[in-house]
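[Discussion] Sanity-checking designs against the backbone

I'm trying to build intuition for which residues belong where. Below is a structure token string of 425 positions. I'd appreciate it if someone posts a full sequence so I can compare it with mine line by line.
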């Protein structure tokens, strides 16, 4: 049994940090905020997801020794690859789900606070094979996936969220991430989620000389292994119950030096088809919230499995979740941690997932022959088929990602099927 309680002593030396007090909203104020959502901006002026100076770390385990090969994206990009990035950026569009006309202009809604959660993205070896195994595919995919996650936070009012990728860790050997490799169960395709999460907290703390704790607010490991809530007969048992993400409740920015663990960590299941965007958004929202929405919240270990709400209603945040977001920032340390600006350089363009991988390709990536049908329904509930003659849809338990074509001249944006013509660049 372990404790994630943390006592923080703050000493101000010749510096005063003034963090806006995010007061607890009254029911009337919250109701008003909830009913008047801001426009979603795909290309906001202050967006900075990732830049050419963002560090990339390639990991290899050689005879029990973890070798780290650090680069910056700028070191890896050739001139031709930069042109590919720039060309792909022309497929980006902005959207406003509350308007008939979609625009890339700045929202008229006055966001009072801007928070920049800096995320260390860790890619497990097993997922690498789903991404063609080369670094160009990996980087492009990560940028696109996390841009889609960032979009899910654009509908939160009063607090402006701008996710930032603080760094990328790529596991180049199966045992590079011991907290994944050591906790595989059953057939080696499943993962003991709770113990793996706990081990990740210790692993990140132990390797802080390689990945400084001060460089990121949240660490998220992406793995293709299924996450087990409960494992029968410990390590050798069957995965009884599965989930899409696991994390600690309200532990963004938390490093516990007495436990020698950093609890600002999460693990999400992913299959390399721009899937589980909502799961990723929901998981990191739990790290940045104060209220637990699960019966498991009373567990003494204070971890929580990030089960995704029903897909039809999960694109917008609930009033409870919004309240939890706002209340989280009453803590001056947490507020400052997430409000500081990330290091900036020449930023890389961001993409809509569905403009890079269409519905058929997304289904094929996870073992189906193609999409069951291409219409507005896939923006709410994505279905695939095993063959083109197959009349039975297979429900994927998530919606098609933004940018996926949902009919002639239409695409999915914020769970809606909208016309290309309704979008202005």
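Best answer:
Here's mine. Compare freely.
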């Amino acid at each position: 049994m372990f404790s994630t309680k943390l006592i923080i002593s703050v000493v101000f030396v010749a510096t005063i940090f003034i963090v806006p007090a995010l007061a607890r909203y009254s029911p009337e104020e919250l109701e008003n905020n909830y009913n008047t959502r801001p426009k979603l901006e795909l290309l906001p002026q202050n967006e900075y997801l990732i830049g050419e100076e963002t560090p990339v770390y390639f990991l290899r385990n050689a005879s029990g020794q973890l070798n780290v090969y650090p680069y910056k994206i700028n070191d890896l990009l050739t001139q031709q690859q930069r042109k590919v990035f720039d060309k792909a950026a022309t497929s980006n569009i902005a959207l406003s789900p509350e308007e008939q006309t979609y625009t890339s202009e700045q929202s008229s809604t006055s966001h009072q606070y801007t928070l920049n959660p800096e995320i260390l993205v860790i890619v497990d070896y097993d997922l690498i094979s789903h991404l063609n195994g080369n670094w160009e595919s990996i980087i492009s995919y990560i940028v696109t996936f996390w841009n889609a996650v960032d979009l899910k936070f654009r509908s939160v009012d009063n607090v402006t969220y701008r996710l930032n990728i603080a760094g990328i860790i790529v596991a180049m050997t199966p045992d590079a991430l011991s907290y994944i490799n050591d906790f595989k169960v059953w057939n080696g395709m499943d993962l003991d989620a709770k113990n793996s999460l706990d081990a990740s907290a210790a692993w990140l703390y132990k390797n802080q000389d390689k990945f400084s704790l001060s460089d990121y607010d949240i660490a998220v490991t992406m793995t293709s292994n299924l996450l087990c809530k409960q494992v029968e007969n410990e390590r050798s048992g069957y995965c009884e119950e599965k989930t899409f993400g696991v994390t600690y409740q309200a532990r963004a920015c938390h490093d516990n030096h007495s436990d020698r663990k950093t609890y600002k960590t999460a693990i999400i299941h992913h299959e390399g088809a721009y899937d589980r965007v909502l799961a990723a958004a929901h998981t990191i929202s739990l790290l940045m919230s104060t209220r637990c929405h699960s019966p498991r919240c009373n567990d003494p270990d204070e971890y929580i499995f990030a089960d995704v709400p029903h897909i039809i209603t999960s694109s917008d945040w609930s009033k409870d979740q919004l309240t939890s977001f706002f209340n989280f920032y009453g803590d001056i340390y947490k507020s400052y941690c997430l409000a500081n600006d990330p290091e900036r350089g020449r930023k890389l363009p961001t993409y809509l997932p569905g403009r890079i991988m269409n519905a058929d390709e997304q289904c094929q990536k996870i073992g189906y022959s193609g999409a069951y049908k291409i219409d507005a329904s896939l923006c709410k509930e994505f279905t695939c088929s095993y063959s083109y003659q197959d009349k039975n849809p297979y429900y994927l338990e998530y919606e098609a990602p933004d940018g996926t074509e949902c009919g002639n001249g239409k695409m999915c944006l914020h769970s809606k099927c909208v016309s290309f013509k309704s979008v202005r660049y």
